[in-house]
Amino acid sequence: MSCAALLAGGASIKRASVKNTLYGTVILHILFVLSPLAGQNFFDNVALGKCFRTFIMYGVIAFALVVNIKLDNKRISSTK
Question: Domain residues for 35?
Fold first, then answer.
């Protein structure tokens, strides 16, 4: 959960700040509040909101890691 908050807040693999932590915490709390409503509206089942939330959270982590890896590779190739 803390890793997801850091990455959702914009932290990179090598560097994180308090600002990233605060942004990520707010984003994930909003996700926790809105996911039951999204589950109710999209699937007509509040319980599916938990699965929706988990899917979105892991998607955010995967997206942030892929973006960080691409940026690191771009920086490495530009310094050579």
Answer: 2-79
